[in-house]
């Protein structure tokens, strides 16, 4: 057997060492991937499965006792002044054996106890009888006019149709189950055609509402944005959400990026601060940007707890310290001065520098003429984001009107996940668009403390609620 040349052995050892490093890195990446869950990454809680971690809130102790605080008015069931029904209870006998005269109504006092009960569910049927007369002057037969909207021999009223729309769009109940509810409660198994007709009428009457909401959103100082996948006619579509604490817009589109955002027409006109995750198409719009820091905290939590990176834990503490300072100024309606921000910003730079020293960039810089990014670790990608989008990360510190997180949009868009879990996908794109428009209306009405059934009744009558613009 021929002897192996020493140089070949050296090359073999070097090759095996390089392969070993690659395999070790692969094992590290896979182990890190297994340790990710909804508390330390952007994975949704539904993906945790049986290994769901114990709840771990990011909130800190407020120092107050649990329950209602001193001075809180509280809420309890109070008796009404004018009940719907009064049932008199007569005193007929005394324990001593004396029997009271049943005709004697002279009572010294009355003790009241009221029971709030649901009446037996039934549909109240109103019959309109339009009389016909012959005019003695012209001799023609004339019939009295029916009220607006009363067009059929037998039909459902607006409040009942509003209830059907409410069940579908607010409570996410499928059409077949709505029919069963109608049968169980009222003895009427409403046809799917009636439900779909109510949804169509309601959506058509809300076209002006959607235009008004989009115009108002484009003029806001701070706007929240998020998007989530939705199945429509068996294909992946995207539900886009733009919202504030007063307004909500939902839009369905086959695309996720700027093509869809341009189609809705809000962000191209928006000049305020847009709060979002780090989805790159948002940065195409010429407005100020603010990143959701709760997303960053989750990623930092993973680096701190699973990969044992001290700088990540320090940055979490600093971000929450900054948030507390910003909240104090927001309560006083004041902004931080440059002198107040300087030490906080310097501390932020120092921590990021520590992280960069532990995770320097690897490989040559990416070619701007080629698509894709160079392969890096999660820590390196996060540090790149902190350096590139520092102004957006700390927007809440520079302007206290900007929130720390994108919680508003995430709460508003959560309903699409409920829709998917309860009712599955949308059968048609038209049905999805109608659902999104009606749901925008319901969300906005609720933010203005308007009862959703009342709001839907107004929409079905052709006079929907319209939010007043802030002057």
Question: How are the elements arranged and paired?
Answer:
Layout: H1 6-34, E1 132-134, E2 141-143, H2 158-169, H3 175-186, H4 192-205, H5 207-218, E3 222-232, E4 235-243, E5 248-253, H6 258-264, E6 273-276, E7 288-291, H7 293-305, H8 310-332, H9 338-358, H10 378-388, H11 390-393, H12 395-398, H13 407-423, H14 429-447, H15 452-460
Parallel strand pairs: 3-6, 6-7
Antiparallel strand pairs: 1-2, 3-4, 4-5
Helix pairs in contact: 2-4, 2-15, 4-14, 7-8, 8-9
Assigned CATH class of the domain at 202-290 and 407-460:
Alpha Beta
Count of helical segments?
15
Strand runs, count: 7
Stretches where pLDDT is under 50 for at least 5 consecutive residues are none
CATH architecture name of the domain at 202-290 and 407-460: 2-Layer Sandwich
Helix fraction bin: 40-55%
Major β-sheet annotation: 5 strands, mixed
The sequence of SSEs as H and E is HEEHHHHEEEHEEHHHHHHHHH
Kindly report the spatial arrangement of strands forming the biggest sheet. 5-4-3-6-7
**How large a portion of the residues is in β-strands, by DSSP E?**
5-15%
Straight-line distance between termini: 92 Å
Structural class: alpha/beta
- Which fold does the CATH topology of the domain at 202-290 and 407-460 refer to? Nucleotidyltransferase, domain 5
Query: How much is the average pLDDT?
Result: 89
What is the overall silhouette?
elongated
* Gyration radius over CA: 32 Å
């Amino acid at each position: 057997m021929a002897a192996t040349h020493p140089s070949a052995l050296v090359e073999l050892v070097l090759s095996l060492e390089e392969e070993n490093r690659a395999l070790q890195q692969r094992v590290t990446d896979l182990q890190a991937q297994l340790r990710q869950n909804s508390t330390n990454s952007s994975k949704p809680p539904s993906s945790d499965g049986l290994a769901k971690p114990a709840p771990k809130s990011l909130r800190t102790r407020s120092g107050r006792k649990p329950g209602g605080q001193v001075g809180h008015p509280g809420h309890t069931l109070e008796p009404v002044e004018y009940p719907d029904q009064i049932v008199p209870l007569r005193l007929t006998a005394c324990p001593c054996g004396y029997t009271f005269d049943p005709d004697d109504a002279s009572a010294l006092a009355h003790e009241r106890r009221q029971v709030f009960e649901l009446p037996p569910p039934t549909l109240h049927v109103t019959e309109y009888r339009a009389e016909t007369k012959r005019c003695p002057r012209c001799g023609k037969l004339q019939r009295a006019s029916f009220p607006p909207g009363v067009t059929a021999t037998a039909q459902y009223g607006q409040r009942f149709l509003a209830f059907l729309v409410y069940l579908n769009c607010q409570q996410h109940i499928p059409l077949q189950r709505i029919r069963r509810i109608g049968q169980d409660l009222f003895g009427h198994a409403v046809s799917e055609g009636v439900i779909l007709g109510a949804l169509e009428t309601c959506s058509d009457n809300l076209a002006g509402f959607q235009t008004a909401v989009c115009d108002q959103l484009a003029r806001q100082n701070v706007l929240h944005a998020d998007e989530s996948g939705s199945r429509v006619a068996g294909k992946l579509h995207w539900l886009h959400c733009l919202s504030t604490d007063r307004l909500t817009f939902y839009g369905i589109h086959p695309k996720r990026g700027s093509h869809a955002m341009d189609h809705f027409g809000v962000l191209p006109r928006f000049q305020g601060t847009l709060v979002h995750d780090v989805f790159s198409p948002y940065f195409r719009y010429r407005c100020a940007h603010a990143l959701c820091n709760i997303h960053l905290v989750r990623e930092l939590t993973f680096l701190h707890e699973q990969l044992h990176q001290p700088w990540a834990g320090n940055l979490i503490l600093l971000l929450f310290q900054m948030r507390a300072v910003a909240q104090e100024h927001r309560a006083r309606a004041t902004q931080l001065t440059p002198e107040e921000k300087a030490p906080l910003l310097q501390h932020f730079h120092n921590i990021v520098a520590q992280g960069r020293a532990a995770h320097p960039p690897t490989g040559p810089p990416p070619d701007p003429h080629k698509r894709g990014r160079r392969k890096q670790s999660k820590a390196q990608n996060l540090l790149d984001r902190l350096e590139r989008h520092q102004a957006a990360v700390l927007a809440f510190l520079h302007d206290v009107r900007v929130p720390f997180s994108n919680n508003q949009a995430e709460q508003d868009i959560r309903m699409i996940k409920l829709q998917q879990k309860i009712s599955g996908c949308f059968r048609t794109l038209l049905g999805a668009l109608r659902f999104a428009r009606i749901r925008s209306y319901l969300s906005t009405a609720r933010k203005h403390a308007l009862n959703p059934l009342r709001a839907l009744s107004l929409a079905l009558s052709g006079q929907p609620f319209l939010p007043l613009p802030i002057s």
